[in-house]
Write a structure and sequence with these properties.
Layout (H helix, E strand, L loop, with lengths): L4 E3 L6 H16 L7 H23 L4 H27 L7 H13 L5 H12 L33 H9 L2 H15 L13 H25 L4 H23 L18 E5 H8 L2 E2 L4 H7 L5 H6 L8 H15 L5 E2 L1 H16 L24 E3 L7 H13 L1
Parallel strand pairs: 1-2, 3-4
Antiparallel strand pairs: 1-5
Helix pairs in contact: 1-13, 2-3, 3-4, 3-9, 5-15, 8-9
Length: 403
């Protein structure tokens, strides 16, 4: 597949000005773009919650329902560690060394059952380059359960997807752990990535991480707890399902919402706007000025900030989000921002809309925002590793380091 092409970022454009202002923020504050004390405190707190809840469960210090509550503390802490620390590590901003970043990210992802290497590959080399573009973003690849893009085929059962999706989301994490990761490991083509090969040691590490996950989450509790095996298994499934649902609530609406665009490239593979404008149109922020939301979500609530400045630690997003909002208003660039509940509602409105039967056989549902239908006739350039806008160039370096 030919590489997508975006319009050139001109001097004085929205992105150039926003980048200058973000650079000025770092110059004036004297802060590093890398992780600082705040992330270290968050990581320490989450690790303490993980270790404390797991130890209390194995010591069986309370009754059955309290053990389940401790399991939820463990599951949520593991998820937030992956979102807050593992995600930043995948973008090479936790430590100076790529090897240390990749190791931190893998460790953070082990306890949620997801292979860190495969996730990083998809996230850096596909999703961040071409968000919401079918065939170029692995996060929006067609799946048989829910229709997440107006550019995907319609199936009869999608008519009820806005009703059954919450139940499907309970199993999203488990599906990735026991099925999705294995498919990704042996796939040779994923969206824009072709001829995929993995270093031999990654296959061994894949197996080790899967074994570690099930030993910690199932084998040890089954061996230690004075409970019937079926109660332990049901507790594992309940914690996994609640953790999976929390993950979906925090993140799925940041791209899959009726506020976001789902661009259709023209026949010549042009997108019709700049890389930065594309990211602004396909991302949706929720409560971007709420410090508690930033602290819990790892900055995923300031999604536009993350996509425009992926090599910056999320602890800086509260300041960057304000810069982006002000600059977008100044340049007339669309900035999607709602509350958390507003994002969730926007996601389910999208599911309801995309589930409707097309008017004609084989036809798709009209996109939520007709602006995405524009085609490009402007000066554009190939988004290659050697020649892309500054933020995407940083992503290219992250992708190379991931190998």
């Amino acid at each position: 597949m030919d590489t997508l092409r975006f319009e050139r970022e001109l001097a004085g454009s929205f992105y150039r000005v926003a980048k200058e202002r973000v650079d000025e923020y770092f110059r004036v504050s004297g802060k590093s773009r890398q992780a600082g004390p705040l992330l270290a405190v968050k990581a320490a707190l989450l690790v303490c919650l993980l270790a404390g809840s797991y130890t209390a469960i194995l010591l069986q210090v309370c009754g059955l329902w309290s053990l389940l509550a401790l399991g939820l503390v463990f599951g949520f802490s593991a998820l937030l560690l992956a979102i807050n620390v593992g995600h930043d590590a995948s973008h090479q901003v936790v430590a100076r060394s790529p090897a240390i970043n990749n190791s931190i990210q893998r460790l953070c992802f082990v306890l949620v059952g997801v292979d860190g290497y495969l996730w990083r590959l998809r996230h850096i080399k596909s999703h961040h380059l071409f968000p919401n573009v079918n065939g170029s973003d692995t996060d929006i690849d067609e799946n048989p359960f829910v229709r997440l893009s107006p550019n995907q085929p319609w199936r009869w059962h999608f008519q009820g997807q806005h009703l059954y999706a919450p139940f499907a989301y309970l199993f999203a994490a488990l599906h990735t752990t026991v099925w999705g990761d294995f498919v990704y490991l042996f796939k040779r083509r994923l969206a824009n990535m072709t001829d995929i090969t993995h270093p031999p040691h990654e296959y061994a590490l894949f197996a080790v991480c899967k074994v570690v996950y099930f030993v910690i989450l199932l084998a040890v509790p089954l061996a230690v707890l004075d409970l019937p095996w079926w109660q332990v298994v049901l507790g594992f499934l309940a914690v996994n399902g609640c953790t999976s649902f929390l993950f979906v609530v925090l993140l799925i609406g940041t791209h899959f919402a009726d506020l976001a665009d789902f661009p259709v490239p023209a026949a010549d593979r042009t997108v019709g706007r700049t890389w930065a404008d594309h990211n602004m149109a396909t991302a949706c922020d929720w409560s971007p000025h709420n410090l508690a939301a930033h602290f819990v979500s790892g900055g995923s609530n300031a999604h536009a900030s993350h996509h425009l400045f992926p090599r910056v630690c999320h602890t800086h997003y509260p300041a960057i989000a304000r810069i982006i909002e002000a600059t977008a208003a100044e340049f007339g660039v669309r900035y999607n921002a709602v509350s958390l509940w507003g994002m969730v509602k926007s996601h389910f409105r999208l599911l309801h809309q995309l589930g409707r039967r097309p008017a004609l056989p084989g036809a798709g549902v009209p996109p939520p925002n007709q602006a995405l239908q524009q085609t490009a006739g402007h000066d554009s350039f190939f988004l290659t590793t050697a020649h892309r806008c500054p933020a995407a160039a940083e992503l290219g370096r992250s992708a190379a380091e991931a190998h």
